[in-house]
């Protein structure tokens, strides 16, 4: 078989479109590959910034991890290239942008919509955990939506902050940290189960369960460490049960991913449920 050597991309291969968002290290643009007309998102990272934050290894890890992930709910990283000043990530374009903006616009999602996204998240997390990859940064800013409203987990590197409606805390909110990370304990893929619980809570209520309220960050840490949260009355009994079984202090007590996928709250909202 002929070994397909990937093309060496340069910026000249692309027509650049509008800006899609900007991050700590650079901006994201809509782009079209000239010969195929294929639409992508191009993330432009400033090399001197990366070096200043000695993030080169992390970027290599992201590219390596993404190279062997193929899942409908994981945003593809097709390749990367660089010039003197920038590294360019060639990414799958998610036409409906950040889940976070849609959530802010309608305050909170219906249980049916939230359960669809949580089921897609659980499918993607089950897939990456089987490959012993931990995302560690599950939060609405890192979740994108494609044209068919399919959720795409993005950014196995750093978070991208949209220009507007940024969360109160800059660069990576503490809201999603599990107790073992707040207490600097060793952690494994079960941290993503905790974050899935936080995400489920936030999609259904519009706020994170341990939201950094007025009295500052350390109370958030204390509340996370004690798994101290209350669920508003409008949340259904099934959703309440799923959230509580994920937001368990002890990682070994958290509902495993396969049980999330067959949880009553997930099954009852499946469209063509038999
Ligand atoms: N509508 C859209 N459709 C597609 N994409 C969109 N936004 C980009 C989402 C991303 C996917 N992957 C990413 N990866 C990184 O940013 N990595 C990154 C960044 C800085 C430093 C580093 C490191 F060097 F520290 F690792 C690694 S951002 C949008 Br809006």
Structure, described:
The longest helix is centred in the middle third of the chain and has 20 residues, at 111-130. This protein has ten helices and seven strands. The N and C termini lie far apart (44 Å). Strands 1-2-3-5-4 form a five-stranded antiparallel β-sheet. The protein has 274 residues and is α+β, with helices and mostly antiparallel strands. It has helices at 47-52, 56-67, 99-105, 111-130, 179-182, 190-205, 216-225, 237-246, 257-261, 264-267; strands at 14-22, 26-33, 39-46, 77-82, 86-91, 143-145, 151-153. The structure holds the ligand Nc1ncnc(NCCc2cnc(NC(=O)Nc3cccc(C(F)(F)F)c3)s2)c1Br. Residues 20-21, 23, 25, 28, 41, 43, 45, 50, 55, 58-59, 62, 75, 89, 91, 93-94, 97-98, 144, 154-155, 157-158, 160 line the site of the ligand Nc1ncnc(NCCc2cnc(NC(=O)Nc3cccc(C(F)(F)F)c3)s2)c1Br.
What is the overall number of helices? 10
Average predicted local confidence, pLDDT: 88
- Please provide the count of β strands: 7
Beginning-to-end CA distance, first to last residue? 44 Å
Q: What's the alpha carbon Rg, rounded to whole Å?
A: 19 Å
Structural class: alpha+beta
Question: What is the molecular shape?
Answer: globular
Ligands bound to this protein structure: ligand AK7
Concise overview:
34% of the residues lie in helices and 16% in strands. It is globular, with a radius of gyration of 19 Å. It has ten helices and seven strands.
